[in-house]
User: Which sequence fits this backbone?
């Protein structure tokens, strides 16, 4: 496979771009997930009644859509990352691998 | 035979899977042997025959170590996503969470959410890096640039302790559940689970384990979808009417639509949340699944699919729980004779989903769901056993004892012997712990995974400054802190040891908030103060490791066969 040393790869601008983009995006998305989840948990812990506020005239409360949104956000955030990684990051990785040959 | 009859009696079986549900769910009424359910046994036998057939097919291609540990890296992203979901969605999630929703409504959703949110973190931070750096076990990654022996021993301890507690909880739960659903003796149920799991893993390795998990995931998702659909159909596909009816018949009335008493202490909630979230990212049998795909791209895709399946499944359990409130608690057939009301449910709240299966699909569907519950347990214990056996054969035997120079066939032989040993041990422990309260064990497994495996893994991938000594100090401190924290928590100190209520020295149900802090601090301080020759090598190895983790250059490819 690759013959180039890691020092040479490290100097490749494509590699630097990949690392910069992927790290900042990965940590940003992780922080987003943590904020959403622990926001939810703190709401449950400190202000459970907020989630019990009725939505409309029926029995439906704010808590139901909020819980659903947390579940769906986990899926959507993962999807956003995978989509970007599949196009952008994989293209960079391919270029780095080519350059390293 | 009557579908309803064999469900009389009670068990805390499925409770055994869940850490804190014990506090919420009904009393243990002692599981007694039930009448034999022919439909359930017939369908379960069909599942066993199919999976044994697959094992036979898998055994013929499982010749190399790569085949045995990782199916040769030949599983696709989609297949692996299903298998991860199959590995992760235990009978506890299905029966325990729907039972919790049945009892407390909204509180069940809080648990579901906690069990899901670890997955995005796995995708963003470790899935691709794991695939790029590792070969068979997560210790391959954690020990990449470090002294092999200490880190392998640490990772093997973290793996085996996590696997042992998780396995005991599964075996005890399995015995109780099967006794109830199929009318088999407890010991017989445990022996059947142990024997099948040994056969799958020993002969079929990762290939058979993966397909057992995929089939189980499909069956469970199909069964749960059907139940949720029937519940929604009953209410004209109007969630509002479903919730309105549930509020009307539930003794807690409108309180089921908001967080209840389950999470009363915010700090305790945060600590549990951390354990669920980061424990997921440190479970050895889950991490191992990332080595079964061909490359980093497939690894990331597989978590995406898994997150989708698992999230969808938890939404279904919420609907199933509410469906059980409306259709089970109002039907005298499912309640203890002469009693009315939600709490009178036959078999306790963990049977809510099972009774609902009977309510919406009759006896045959009830048999199907019972067989799925059995299959679910088998899939989870197989994955656990394979992870434990790999830690023994790949990390301890091949790397520590044989210094990385083990003969491949010897290594496979050791892993098969380890599988048989772990299987027999699991059966013995399952029988020993039959009448013990094992509800805390899954919580403990998650706490250890979050406090030992996860910190060492994530720091080894991202922190240049980590040294062998720092990792060993932090990892073992985290492991010890998690163990001590759980022993001193109310769930063990009061519920298991029988000390008076309120006497637990450690007031929270899960120690993760503290034990994770201790682990990270231990790694950090231990590494900073380390000025040994080895430490210099550890730090010097980081750039090369980082390049490989980012690009996959030099990573183990899919084995051809």
Assistant:
């Amino acid at each position: 496979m690759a013959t180039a040393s890691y020092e040479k790869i490290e100097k490749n601008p494509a590699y630097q771009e990949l690392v910069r983009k992927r790290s900042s995006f990965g940590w940003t998305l992780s922080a987003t997930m943590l904020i959403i989840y622990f926001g939810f948990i703190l709401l449950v812990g400190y202000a459970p009644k907020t989630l019990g506020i009725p939505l409309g005239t029926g029995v439906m409360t704010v808590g139901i859509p909020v819980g659903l949104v947390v579940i769906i956000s986990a899926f959507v955030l993962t999807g956003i990352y995978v989509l970007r990684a599949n196009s952008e990051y994989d293209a960079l990785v391919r270029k780095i691998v080519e350059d390293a040959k | 035979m009557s579908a309803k009859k064999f469900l009389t009696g009670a068990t805390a079986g499925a409770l055994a899977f869940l850490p804190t549900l014990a506090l919420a769910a009904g009393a243990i009424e002692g599981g007694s042997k039930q009448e034999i359910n022919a439909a359930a046994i017939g369908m379960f036998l069909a599942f066993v025959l199919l999976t044994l057939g697959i094992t036979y097919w898998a055994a013929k291609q499982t010749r190399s170590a790569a085949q045995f540990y990782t199916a040769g890296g030949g599983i696709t992203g989609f297949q692996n996503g299903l298998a991860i979901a199959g590995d992760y969605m235990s009978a506890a999630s299905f029966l325990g969470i729907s039972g919790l929703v049945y009892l407390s409504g909204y509180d069940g959703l809080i648990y579901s959410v906690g069990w899901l949110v670890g997955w995005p973190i796995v995708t963003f931070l470790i899935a691709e890096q794991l695939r790029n750096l590792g070969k068979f076990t997560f210790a391959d990654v954690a020990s990449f640039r470090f002294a092999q022996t200490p880190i392998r021993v640490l990772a093997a301890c973290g793996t085996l302790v996590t696997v042992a507690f998780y396995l005991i909880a599964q075996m005890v739960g399995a015995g109780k559940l099967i006794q109830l659903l199929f009318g088999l003796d407890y010991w017989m149920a445990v022996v059947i689970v142990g024997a099948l799991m040994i056969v799958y893993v020993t002969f079929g390795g990762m290939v058979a384990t993966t397909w057992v998990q995929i089939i189980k995931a499909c069956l469970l998702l199909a069964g749960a979808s059907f139940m949720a659909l029937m519940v929604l159909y009953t209410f004209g596909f109007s969630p509002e009417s479903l919730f309105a009816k549930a509020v009307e018949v539930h003794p807690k009335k409108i309180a089921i639509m908001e967080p209840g008493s389950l999470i009363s202490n915010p700090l305790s909630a945060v600590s549990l949340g951390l354990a669920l979230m980061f424990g997921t990212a440190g479970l050895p049998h889950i991490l191992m699944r990332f080595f079964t795909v061909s490359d980093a791209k497939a690894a990331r895709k597989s978590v995406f699919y898994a997150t989708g399946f698992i999230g969808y499944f938890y939404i279904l359990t919420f609907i199933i729980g509410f469906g059980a409130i409306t259709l089970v608690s109002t039907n005298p057939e499912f309640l203890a004779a002469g009693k009315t009301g939600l709490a009178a449910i036959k078999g306790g709240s963990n049977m809510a989903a099972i009774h609902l299966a009977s309510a919406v699909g009759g006896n045959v569907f009830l048999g199907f769901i019972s067989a799925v519950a059995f299959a679910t347990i088998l899939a989870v214990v197989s994955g656990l056993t394979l992870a434990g056996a790999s830690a023994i054969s790949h990390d301890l035997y091949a790397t520590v004892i044989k210094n990385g120079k083990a003969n491949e066939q010897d290594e496979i032989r050791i892993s098969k012997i380890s599988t048989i040993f772990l299987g027999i041990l699991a059966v013995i422990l399952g029988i020993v712990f039959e009448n013990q309260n094992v509800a805390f064990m899954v919580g403990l497994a998650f706490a250890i995974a979050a406090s030992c495996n996860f910190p060492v893994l994530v720091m080894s991938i991202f922190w240049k400054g980590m040294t062998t000594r720092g990792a060993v100090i932090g990892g073992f401190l985290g492991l010890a802190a998690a163990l001590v924290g759980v022993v001193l928590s109310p769930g063990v100190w009061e519920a298991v040891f029988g000390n008076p209520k309120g006497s637990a020295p450690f007031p929270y149900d899960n120690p993760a908030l503290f034990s994770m802090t201790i682990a990270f601090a231990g790694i950090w301080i231990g590494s900073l103060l380390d000025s040994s020759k080895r430490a210099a090598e550890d730090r010097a190895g980081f750039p090369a490791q980082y390049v490989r983790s980012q690009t996959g250059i030099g990573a183990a490819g899919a084995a051809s066969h």
